[in-house]
Structures are given as structure tokens and as C-alpha cells.
Specification:
Blueprint lengths: L8 E5 H9 L2 H4 L10 H16 L4 E12 H5 L12 H16 L4 E6 L2 H15 L3 E4 L13 E5 L4 E3 L1 H8 L6 H8 L14 H11 L2 H6 L6 H10 L3 H8 L21 H10 L3 H10 L18 E4 L3 H14 L1 E8 L9 E9 L2 E6 L13 H12 L5 E4 L2 H9 L9 E3 H8 L8 H9 L6 H5 L13 H27 L2 H24 L1 E3 L1 H26 L8 H11 L17 H8 L3 H20 L1 H4 L7 E2 L2 E3 L9 E3 L11 H7 L2 E2 L4 E8 L2 H10 L2 H8 L4 H9 L9 H15 L4 H8 L3 H14 L1 H17 L1 E3 L5 E3 L8 H38 L4 E6 L3 E7 L3 H13 L10 E6 L7
Parallel strand pairs: 1-2, 1-4, 2-3, 4-5, 7-10, 8-11, 11-12
Antiparallel strand pairs: 5-6, 8-9, 9-10, 13-14, 13-17, 15-16, 18-22, 18-23, 19-20, 21-22
Helix pairs in contact: 1-3, 3-5, 5-13, 8-9, 8-12, 13-14, 15-16, 17-22, 18-21, 18-22, 19-21, 22-36, 23-26, 25-26, 29-35, 29-36, 31-32, 32-33, 33-34, 34-35, 35-36, 36-37
The protein binds a DNA duplex (11 and 13 nucleotides) through helix 24, helix 26, strand 16, helix 32 and helix 33.
DNA sequence: GCGCGACCATA
DNA sequence: GTATGGTCGCGCC
């Protein structure tokens, strides 16, 4: 066995992974047909497979605990005495796993008298001394003590790496303080005594203060309170704990680190073992690697495809290609342009592909020095136009809305059958990956694409596509089309297997794309003079506030810097700290300043300053700059594949967070206006998420309240506080409203109590009362949690799916967070589905009217905004309200409410 | 020039 | 307590 000095040493803590894999729910289900469990085997082997992929040159060594006692039991008979014996269904998996690992040719170490940690520690130390890069693959945080500049940890199950900086970040201390840290805390599971009530926080605090365990011990009489007593009474046993927590780095081992290295895999034995234990995927992969064909398995790496990419510079070749595209019936298509901003972008070339691996790029506007002569943009578009508008040809693209927006400037439309791979991926699984092409190619095709930065550079010196040499541009562009087609071939069949997902894709998302494109191209009219005027006023007030603040502070400082503000408030003015940020610095967040403002003058100034400068920098300064010179309008981008719940998002500018709550903020909405003789019409769904909750939960009380058209918060208040509807006070209504919202967010009593400013018990009492009055809601919440836990996903009314991988987390906080998301997603997502359906119906009606006096301009989650000519505004609004009310058939009425005005503020 | 945390705008 | 996007300061390279 020899090691290549250049390859990193990968030390695998097999025992740690074995135990963890054993407890993974979906692995627990695995067994052979005669009942031999194989989940833990599968888990560990998958993990080794992942390591092989991540470290192709890695020298993998697998270490397991041996049976029997270790030197730690001699030191301390109670060590791990609390551990239950290993379950039989885990024990029975160990020998087969060892056999498989050996057959794979990997060095396997099982050393008696020490633990796997100690073997790893010994090799890590040897490797470190030889300067060999070492990666320890483990799920055990104790190993952090082994980290050095040459040694780092990777947790393959959570895919997180930790080097020295990572240790400091995670623990707040350096690797060489980890043993001290573990000593102070002790370990309940392993039965190592520590300081009673000393957890991670306290341990880190002490070590920061006194540097080392020795320092802590020397200064133990300085620690006050109960915890100080605990520390002093633990002093005697700390040296023992230290010894137990220390991973041994001088074990006697059969091989030196330099002697470790892989052997030839024993394929025959592997085949036999995989067959015996019915490890079908591994078997299939092994056979595939040996050149045998196997039954199709979607997760198997697709065969590498030979690629032939062509650059088209003459008309005859273009014609031949276009004929091929037509004959193929389905083709992928992509544009290359000068900008990501569709309003500024100019077309530089187009690429297409109708057979995996065969693609072409047609440059039309590369203008670097020495660029060859190219076909004209006009000619190429003229020839392509009928294909893109064909009613029969299927056009496949990645984020086609962008291409459609760019081509619209050249009067070329993409219509007829259109499929978008970004949306396919999004509908298939909104959380598995980002939906950009590079990520999709890697996930679904196991292919690393050429990145734009690879050919264009990055930063200020980044080239635009027209400046890139054809030799580099063509493979990139052609690959885009090729990969798009292959992604479609990979993703569409997956959607077809899930009729619900396919229907969301075909009935909602794809039809919505041209609707969004029209809204984006149409844009929204902004009164830039009004905004500029507001900027000036705000600027003057900010200057005044700044002067006053500097006066009080006694020196100049940046009011916008939380760090400087924190110095002024808490260090210099000695104002008491109320709350800290997650990283431990005193918080200067709004709620804190609000509270301080009651007693001190400066926080109040800061609050006003913050609010105003936010408005100025984000809105009044920026929006006028975003008006497109060519249209005089502001053109946002709606992203259709960002949110996990099915909502749209809006960027450049974000039109979905224009202020409304504060007085000053509302003024910005006054700048959202309509053209001459037109009105702004805003129509929003009233309480849509609560209505959906009523529908999904089928709760009789809630259904009645909505059917009878009651004020839902008032009705809720009457039920919770046991008073007549008319006797509900505004305070009671406010609490009920907070509860109603909280339910949608999957709240806890703790969250509710914070929101409405009552004790936790009182909040719990309100919730109990609520669930007593609306038992259907309680059942629904419980069912949703259960479904999320069982299936790993939840669904909207229309079958949109949201996976919740964290629902299986053993980390309580994460699991709880996933459960809250599970509660919220069906309601938020169904609301998103409904307004999307409404947009489709409204747009269809507007297109049918063929009247330029009606335009849909914005979507803000539960609201649609239009500009409509004043002559027809009343009846048109009534018609649209009607369409929106009919967008879905729920057990309660959908109510859309309209406002009409000269600007967006007035329209509310 | 970039990435990240804190903060804050919306539904 | 859910879901987003934008700006700022600041430390880093």
C-alpha cells in the first residue's frame, strides 16, 4: 500500500456515521426481502460514495470502533456506562459493511483497546507532521480538537466543512481550546462529568476570559453565583474529564500513515455482496462501471454525450438548420445579449438544438476587433420568426420570459407551445436547487457547464457578449441550447409522473409566463418630479436630525452604522442594553430603540433618521433612476422560480415592497400614477389566506363566519373572549387579529405572547380557547404537521408541492421551523395559485377586449394593479373584480375589493 | 470588488 | 411565528 503525497488523506469516522445512518427514518425502512436490515449499510456506503465524488484524488481510510473495552474504561469505569447495548438490527449490519468496504479496496481499521476517534487522531497527527492535507469525515463535534491548518473536518450528512476558522466560527474558540471546552461541559451521553449547569455558552465565556482550562481553574474563586460553586466543586474531577475528552494521537497502529492507500477493488466479491444484501443501486452502478447495461434508474449518471457544436456564418447553413428544427418538432432555443436587464439588452446571437449533443450558434452582432462577418440580425430574426410563432413547433428554453422580452423589442414573439426548463425544475421541486441552468445541469445531468464568468471574466472588467471571441462564445452559447434540451428531456418525464405537478406546470405556470412578460414590458408610470421633490425634503430633514444627534452624542458619528450607534448609546451614554443580536452585540433594532425612546432623546432621533433614510435611499432616490428612457416607465422583473411557496418575487426594482404603513411611506405611492386620462385601479383579495384556512380546515365556525360576511377578526375576538359581537373592544379585536395571523404562520404561544404583549400563559390560554371554538383548525394543523413528517412535503389546493427536508432534522429548532413552514405553505401557496389563476383569467379577458385603455401593471401577492381609461374605469373594474372573485371555487366566497384613484395611494 | 450580517420595506 | 428583496456598513481579499 502506498500513498500519493499529493492526494489528500480522507479519514472516515465509520462508527459515527453508522450510528447516525441507523437513526435516519427513511434508511430504517431498508432491508432485504428476507428481513435483514440494510439501512445503516446503505447510509455509510452512500456517504463514502459522496466522499469519492467530492475528493476524486482522495486517499480514503475508514475507521470503526472495535468491540470491547477501551483505555478510557480503565481510566474511568463509568465511561459510557449509560449507553444501552447496541441494538441487534444494527449489530447485524457491521460485519457485512466491513466486508463491503474491504472489497472496495479501501483500508479499513478496527483497533481494539482504543476508539475510532483515537485512530483518526493518530493518523491526523502523523499526516499533519508530514504536511499532508487531511480531511476527517465525521458527524462528531469532539473531533474539532484535531483541526489544524492541514486538517479539517467535513460532515458529509450535512455537507458542511470546518477548518480552523470554521471551528472558531462554530464554537467561538480555537481548536486547541476544544478539549478544555468539552472538559468544562462534560458529556451526559458518554457519562463524562463536567461542571454542573455549564453548557457551551458558559464554557466559551470562561475560556475567552481566562484562555485555558488551567486559567479557569486558577480563577475559579472569581466566578460568582451558583455556577461558581458548581465549578469549584468540580475542580477535582476536571483533570479526569480532560483526559477522557482528549483524543489520543499516539496509538500503536499496524500501518504508518505513509503506508495507507487503496487496493484494487474486488469486483466479484462486491457483486456477490451487493446481490446478497439487495443493494440495487450500488449493484447497478457497479455493473454500469463494468460496462454492463442495467434497467433504467433515473439517479444514475447519464452517459456522456459526444457534442458537436457549430457556428453558423452563412445563410445556407442557417436554412439547413432551420429545416432540421422544423422537422424535429421540438427544439431548444436561447438568446445571447449584452445585458441581464431586458430593457437595455441587445441581441448578439441565437443558439438552438434539436438533438442532444448537436447544437449551433448564430452570431449576429459580435463586434470585437477581428470578428468575422456575420449574418445580419434582421435576416436571422426574419427566418426564425415563423418557427418561434409556430402553433405546432414546441419551443424549449431556460427562463424564456427573458428571451421573449428581448425579442419583443425586435417585434419577434414567442408563441404557441412553449416549455421552460427553469419552470419545470421549479414545479418539480421548488426547494431542491436554485433553478439556474448551471445548477440544473449539475443536479440533473451531472454536467458542469461553461460559466459565463469563464468566458467573460468578472467584476468591472467583465466583457459583454458582443465583445467575446466567437471561439469562446460559440461553445458557450451552443451548450446553453444543448443543455436546455437535455434538461427538458430529463425533467419533463419526471413531471409527467406526477399529474398534479404537471398540471400546475401546464395550467398555471407556463400560461402565466407571457402574462408576466406583458406586464413587465408595459411597465408602470412614475412621477419622478414628485419623488425627487420628496428626496430633497427628506434630505433636509435628515441633515437636521444628524445635527441634533451629533449634538446629543457630543461627537460626529454615522447614524446609519449600527456599530457606531451601539458605541455611542451603550458605551458612551451608558444606556442599558435591552437585547442582543444573534452574534452577541447589543441590538439597535427598531423595537429596542422604541423602548429606549421613552426615556432617552437620542433613540427617537435615530428611529426617525433610519426610517427616512431607508425611504430615501431605497425608494425616492432610486425609483426615478430606474425609469427606462425608451418608454418613460419603470419595468420590474417578476421572478417565477424563486419562492418555495409559489409566490412571485419582484426585482429591479422590487415593486412588492413599496411602503404603505407609515404616513411618509405612503407618499411614495402617490408617485405611482396613470397616464393622461387614466386611473390607477388596485384590487386586492380580502383575507385570502384566512379564507383558504377555512376551506382547507373545513371548520364549521370559520366557514359560517365567512359565509355570513362577518368581520373575521371581530368574530374571532367574540369567540375567544366570550363576548357578544358588538361588545368586542378594539384591543380584543387586535389580539384576535394577531392570533389569526399567527395561525397562518404556524405560531407558538411564545411567538403570540411577544406579538400582543401578554404573558406566555395568557397567550396559551387564548390559543386553547381558539382551538376549542374552532376545532377543525386544530385538526387541520395537526394533520398538516403529520403529513409533512410522513411524506416530507405539503401541497396547495391545486397540487403545488413544497418539500421540507428539514422536517427530518434532529435539531429541534430546525424541525420546529420546518413544521411552521409546513403549516404556512399550503395557505400562502394556495393564495399564490389563486391569484395566478386570476391573472390568467383577467389577462385573457383583457386580450379579448383588445382595448389599449386597459392594462394590468403590477402584482403584489394578493393585489393586482391596473391602469384603466377614466371613460371605462367603473365598468371595467367591476368586470375584473368579478373575474377575480370567480378565480377559484372555495367553500367560502372569494372577495376582491377595488379602489380607484389618481395614484396608487388614492386607489387604496 | 465581494460576501455577510443587521436592518427594514411588503404580503 | 410565514414568505421575500434592497441597502448599508464593515471586514476581507
Amino acid at each position: 500500500m502506498t500513498a500519493n503525497a499529493l492526494s489528500p488523506l480522507i479519514l472516515v469516522d465509520g462508527s459515527s456515521y453508522l450510528f447516525r445512518a441507523y437513526h435516519v427514518p427513511y434508511l430504517q425502512a431498508l432491508s432485504t426481502s428476507d428481513g435483514q436490515p440494510t439501512g445503516a449499510i446503505t447510509g455509510v456506503l452512500n456517504m463514502i460514495k459522496a466522499l469519492k465524488k467530492d475528493y476524486p484524488n482522495g486517499n480514503i481510510v475508514v475507521v470503526f470502533d472495535a468491540k470491547g473495552k477501551t483505555f478510557r474504561n480503565d481510566l474511568y469505569p463509568e465511561y459510557k456506562a449509560n449507553r444501552p447495548p447496541m441494538p441487534d438490527d444494527l449489530r447485524s449490519q457491521i460485519a457485512p459493511l466491513h466486508n463491503i468496504i474491504e472489497a472496495m479496496g479501501l483500508p479499513l481499521l478496527v483497533i481494539e483497546g482504543v476508539e475510532a476517534d483515537d485512530v483518526i487522531g493518530t493518523y491526523a497527527k502523523q499526516a499533519n507532521e508530514l504536511g499532508i492535507e487531511t480531511v476527517i469525515s465525521t458527524g462528531d463535534k469532539d473531533m474539532a480538537q484535531l483541526v489544524t491548518p492541514h486538517v479539517r473536518l467535513i460532515n458529509t450528512m450535512t455537507d458542511t466543512e470546518m477548518d480552523e476558522a470554521g471551528v472558531e466560527e462554530k464554537f467561538g474558540i480555537k481548536p486547541d481550546q476544544i478539549i478544555d471546552y468539552l472538559t468544562l461541559m462534560g458529556d451526559k451521553v458518554d457519562n463524562i462529568p463536567g461542571v454542573e449547569k455549564c453548557g457551551p455558552k458558559t464554557a466559551v465565556k470562561w475560556l475567552k476570559e481566562y484562555g485555558t482550562l488551567e486559567g479557569v481553574i486558577e480563577n475559579s474563586d472569581k466566578v460568582k453565583g451558583k455556577i461558581g460553586e458548581n465549578l469549584r466543586s468540580a475542580l477535582e474531577q476536571l483533570p479526569l474529564s480532560y483526559e477522557l475528552a482528549t483524543i489520543k494521537t499516539d496509538c500503536e497502529l499496524p500501518y504508518d500513515v505513509s503506508e495507507l492507500g487503496p487496493k484494487q477493488a474486488d469486483t466479484d466479491t462486491l457483486l456477490e455482496l451487493y446481490t446478497k444484501f439487495e443493494l440495487r443501486r450500488l449493484l447497478a452502478e457497479l455493473k454500469a462501471a463494468n460496462g454492463e447495461t442495467t434497467e433504467a434508474d433515473e439517479e444514475i449518471t447519464p452517459a456522456k454525450i459526444d457534442t458537436h457544436y457549430e457556428t453558423i456564418l452563412d445563410e445556407a447553413t442557417l436554412d439547413t438548420w432551420l429545416t432540421q428544427l422544423s422537422d424535429a418538432g421540438t427544439f431548444a432555443f436561447d438568446t445571447e445579449t449584452t445585458s441581464l436587464d431586458y430593457m437595455k439588452a441587445e441581441l448578439v446571437g441565437v443558439s438552438f438544438c434539436c438533438e442532444a449533443g448537436k447544437a449551433a450558434y448564430v452570431p449576429v452582432a459580435h463586434d470585437y476587433v477581428g470578428a468575422p462577418s456575420q449574418l445580419s440580425r434582421e435576416l436571422v430574426l426574419e427566418k426564425l420568426k415563423p418557427l418561434l410563432a409556430s402553433d405546432t413547433l414546441v419551443k424549449v428554453g431556460q427562463n424564456l420570459k427573458y428571451d421573449a422580452n428581448v425579442l419583443a423589442k425586435y417585434n419577434v414573439a414567442i408563441t404557441g407551445p412553449v416549455l421552460d426548463t427553469m419552470i419545470e425544475s421549479y414545479c418539480y421541486n421548488s426547494v431542491a436547487t436554485r433553478h439556474n441552468m448551471d445548477a440544473l445541469a449539475e443536479k440533473y445531468l451531472d454536467h458542469k457547464t461553461i460559466h459565463f464568468e469563464d468566458i467573460a471574466g468578472k467584476g468591472a472588467k467583465q466583457l459583454t457578449f458582443n465583445q467575446i471571441e466567437l471561439e469562446k462564445a460559440a461553445p458557450y452559447a451552443a451548450e446553453d441550447a444543448d443543455i436546455t434540451l437535455r434538461l427538458h428531456q430529463a425533467l419533463y418525464p419526471k413531471l409527467e409522473k406526477e399529474s398534479q405537478l404537471l398540471s400546475v406546470f401546464k395550467e398555471i405556470e407556463m400560461p402565466l409566463m407571457p402574462v408576466l412578460a406583458r406586464m413587465e414590458q408595459g411597465g408602470v408610470l412614475i412621477d419622478d418630479h414628485l419623488l425627487t421633490e420628496q428626496s430633497h425634503q427628506i434630505g433636509a430633514r435628515l441633515a437636521q436630525l444628524e445635527m441634533e444627534a451629533h449634538d446629543i452624542a457630543g461627537r460626529a458619528f454615522n447614524l446609519a452604522s449600527p456599530k457606531q450607534l451601539q458605541e455611542i448609546l451603550f458605551d458612551e451614554l451608558k444606556i442599558p442594553v435591552i437585547k442582543k443580536t444573534p452574534k452577541g452585540a447589543p441590538s439597535t433594532a427598531e423595537e429596542v430603540l422604541e423602548e429606549l425612546a421613552l426615556d432617552y432623546p437620542l433613540p427617537k432621533l435615530i428611529l426617525e433618521h433610519r426610517g427616512l433614510s431607508k425611504l430615501k435611499s431605497t425608494y425616492t432616490d432610486k425609483l426615478p433612476l430606474m425609469i427606462a428612457p425608451s418608454t418613460g416607465h419603470v419595468h420590474t422583473s417578476y421572478n417565477q422560480a424563486v419562492t418555495v411557496t409559489g409566490r412571485l418575487s419582484s426585482t429591479d426594482p422590487n415593486l412588492q415592497n413599496i411602503p404603505i404603513r407609515s404616513e411618509e411611506g405612503r407618499k411614495i405611492r402617490q408617485a405611482f400614477i396613470a397616464p393622461q386620462d387614466h386611473k390607477v385601479v388596485a384590487i386586492d383579495y380580502s383575507q385570502i389566506e384566512l379564507r383558504i384556512m377555512a376551506h382547507l380546515s373545513d371548520d364549521a365556525g370559520l366557514l359560517t363566519a365567512f359565509k355570513e360576511g362577518r368581520d373575521i377578526h371581530q368574530a374571532t375576538a367574540a369567540e375567544i373572549f366570550n363576548v357578544a359581537l358588538d361588545d368586542v373592544t378594539s384591543n380584543q379585536r387586535r389580539s384576535a387579529k394577531a392570533i389569526n395571523f399567527g395561525l397562518i404562520y404556524g405560531m407558538s404561544a411564545f411567538g403570540l405572547s411577544k406579538q400582543i404583549g401578554v404573558g406566555r400563559n395568557e397567550a396559551q390560554a387564548y390559543m386553547d380557547k381558539y382551538f376549542e371554538r374552532y376545532p377543525g383548525v386544530l385538526t387541520y394543523m395537526e394533520d398538516t404537521r403529520q403529513k409533512a413528517n410522513e411524506k416530507g412535503y405539503v401541497e396547495t389546493l391545486f397540487g403545488r408541492r413544497l418539500y421540507l427536508p428539514e422536517i427530518k432534522s434532529r435539531n429541534g429548532m430546525r424541525k420546529k421551523a420546518a413544521e411552521r413552514a409546513a403549516i404556512n405553505a399550503p395557505m400562502q401557496g394556495t393564495a399564490a395559485d389563486i391569484i395566478k389563476k386570476a391573472m390568467l383569467a383577467v389577462d385573457a379577458w383583457i386580450v379579448e377586449q383588445n382595448d389599449p385603455r386597459i392594462k394590468m401593471t403590477m402584482q403584489v401577492h394578493d393585489e393586482l394593479v391596473f391602469e384603466i381609461h377614466q371613460d371605462i374605469v367603473e365598468e371595467t373594474t367591476a368586470k375584473i373584480v368579478d373575474i377575480m372573485n370567480q378565480a377559484a371555487e372555495l367553500k367560502v366566497p372569494l372577495i376582491a375589493e377595488a379602489g380607484i384613484g389618481m395614484n396608487w395611494d388614492e386607489a387604496h
